[in-house]
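Summary of Year 1 activities. Much of the first year was spent building the evaluation harness for sequence design. The harness presents a backbone, in tokenized form, and records the residue chosen at every position. We chose the following record to illustrate the format because it has been used consistently in internal testing since the harness was completed.
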């Protein structure tokens, strides 16, 4: 099993385990935050979703990113090892196209640290497209599903507002 750290739409368990993704193969491990300073940004465009998607970048302000840890069978990580008829995590994340694999240290609420696999943007988009409300709703629903703090959820909303100001008005910020 490979432990993966998810901070975007795959925070929602029904999304990562949907038939179009891992079809129930991801097992929830817990929540964690990055040990090193990172922040959530929306700087990569997804042709599949037609909107900007979440990414993590080094933070110069000491911020941390919270996410969800899942154990994923090793044979479902790479396109080369994934059985026919299944989707690899690399394919889901667009590894080699929009993203690259990245290992980072994360810390669970009990203080335990571990190395987890995640994906970060290969080439940030200079001319940003906006995130969609549906995509943001998946992220926030996943964070709430796993009881991530309202304080962090508000940071996510502010990141969306910063990168996609037309997506979230103050009213919508309180609906989520």
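For this record, the design step produced the sequence shown next.
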């Amino acid at each position: 099993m490979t432990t993966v750290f998810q901070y975007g739409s795959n925070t929602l368990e029904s999304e990562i385990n949907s038939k179009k993704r891992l079809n129930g193969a991801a097992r929830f491990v817990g929540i964690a935050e990055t040990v090193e300073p990172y922040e959530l940004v929306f700087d990569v465009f997804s042709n599949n979703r037609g909107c900007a998607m979440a990414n993590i970048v080094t933070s110069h302000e000491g911020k941390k990113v919270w996410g969800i840890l899942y154990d994923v069978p090793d044979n479902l990580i790479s396109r080369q090892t994934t059985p026919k008829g299944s989707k690899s995590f690399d394919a889901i994340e667009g590894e080699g196209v929009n993203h690259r694999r990245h290992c980072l240290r994360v810390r669970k609420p009990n203080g335990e640290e571990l190395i987890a696999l995640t994906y970060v943007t290969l080439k940030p988009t200079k001319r940003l497209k906006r995130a969609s409300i549906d995509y943001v709703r998946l992220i926030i629903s996943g964070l709430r599903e796993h009881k991530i703090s309202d304080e962090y959820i508000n940071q996510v909303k502010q990141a969306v507002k910063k990168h996609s100001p037309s997506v979230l008005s103050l009213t919508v910020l309180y609906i989520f």
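The chain has a mean pLDDT of 89. Quantitative recovery figures across the full test set are reported in Table 2.
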